[in-house]
Each structure stands twice: as C-alpha cells, then as structure tokens.
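Q: Got a minute? One more chain.
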Amino acid sequence: MLLKSVIRHCRVPLIGLIGLIFVRSLLPLWPWAEANKELITTGFSLAMIVLISWLVIKSTQVLRDVVTGQFDITAKDNLRARKVHTQLDVMRHIVVVIVLVVAFGTALMVFPKGQQIGTTLLASAGIIGIVVGMSAQKTITTVIAGLQIAFTQPIRLDDVVIVESEWGRIEEITLTYVVVRIWDQRRLIVPVTYFIEKPFQNWTRTTAELLGTVFLYTDYTVPVDAVRQTLQGILDKSPLWDKRVCVLQVTNATEKTMELRALMSTANASDGWDLRCQVREKLLTYIQESHPDALPRTRAVLARMSDEK
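A: Always. Here it is, folded:
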C-alpha cells in the first residue's frame, strides 16, 4: 500500500527531481554551459526548490493514505480513527503552509538582490507592521483556533453535530473553516472559530450511542401496559435496537390527552432516527387497530334544559 501511494502521489515530482539531477550532472559536457553558468545555476536552484517543495507536500498525501489504511473511519467504532484523521488533516494543512512560505523565502534568496529586498522589507516593517498586524489579527485567531481544534478536538471528522439548528456530520476541517454535511446533502460552511466561541451539540463526542424518544398522545382509556408490551415486541424484532434501553412512561396528562413517551437506545444517530420513525408508525398502527377508542378525542356533555313555565 505504501509503494502504491508513493507512486500515485510522488511519481511526478520524483521523476522531475531525478531528471533535474541527471541534467545537472551533464552540464560540464555542454560547451555553452560555462558562458551561461549564473543563469543556469539560478534556474536549477529555483527548479530544485519547486520540486522539493512539491515532493514534501505530496508526501503528506502518502502519510494520509497510510494512516487511512490503519485507522478506518468508516468502521462502526471509529472514535480513535476520527481523532487521528482530524489531527492529521489539520497538521497536513499547517505543513503545506509552512513549506510554501519556506520555499518562497528560499527562492527569494537565490537572486543576488534577494537579500537587499529582505532588508528593505525589514526596514519598512516598523511602518506597516501595525497595519498588517491589525488586518491579520482575525486570521491569526482563526489559525490558532484551528490548532486548538486539532489538539483538544471538540469536533472530529465524521462527528454528528447540531450547528445552526442543522443536523449533519463533520466532513472537512481546515485551518480556517469547517464543512458540515447536512442530512439532505447540503454543505454548511462554518468558520473554525465557531466551534471555539459558540455552543453546539456533538452527538458523538465520546461515543456514538444515543437514546431516542417517541411521544404519543392518547385518550385516558388507553391500556398502557399493552402499549408497553407492544413496544418491547417492536424493538425485539428490529435490528436497529442495541438492546440497552426500552422504556414506556406516562410523562404528562392534560385535560384532553395523556402523553406517552417511548424511550429506546441505538448504536448511532442514523439508526436512532430510523428506529424512532419505525416505532412511532407501528405504535400508532397498534392503537388504531386494537384500541381505536383510545385515540385522542374531545368529550362534550349536553344537558337539556326544561322549558320555563
């Protein structure tokens, strides 16, 4: 797997680097090379910087493939895998930024006037430093927030979250923003600072197991024990139930209806949604067919008044 990943990602920069070294070794054999030595040296130095930087960036993809092979994020119990994937993705973005900055600085120093340019920039730093610092303050805060997420991990890849009243999964984490894949396949783009500064729900912070609820509103004549036994039978037959919790309780009573709450457990949020829909449908069907008089209804007492004499 490692060899395949290296070939897929690093083939082009490796071939370019080997070819550049080979051509450089043949330069003494070319009669015109001595006359253009400075130009050729500058060109080869720039090409070497570009190819090495490209190779380092592509190597992060190889590392990601290796980690993906060892920590499968699609597995049922994927908490550790999501931790590793989150840290790796954020750190990979950091490495890419550092490599690009170092490559640019190194390429600048290749030119004879590169040091003069650097001196000029440093001399003017006192004037523009405050302006740049103020404009970059938000960016720096965002990057720091990205690093904080990578290490403290309030969210991880594939976490189930509720953000801005939307249910979705964390699809991508960068240094500046987070992509949340909404249940209906929309994408919610959220600044990375959102998950540091604002409250949100994370349904898979420590485990994917959840409790689901179904509320039914019935007449006072409903046989609660019979409904409770029916709930148990529905869950026993469902592969979505993880067999941890099965409870039916009367949680409220008004002047017109009685509130029944069915509580059930599932291994993850997706199973929980499907099981709740299934239980709600089957319990309603049971009441309709077996106890139709127990459906909600409004009672009225009519009194006939005698005529006044």
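A: The radius of gyration is 33 Å.
Q: Perfect, thanks.
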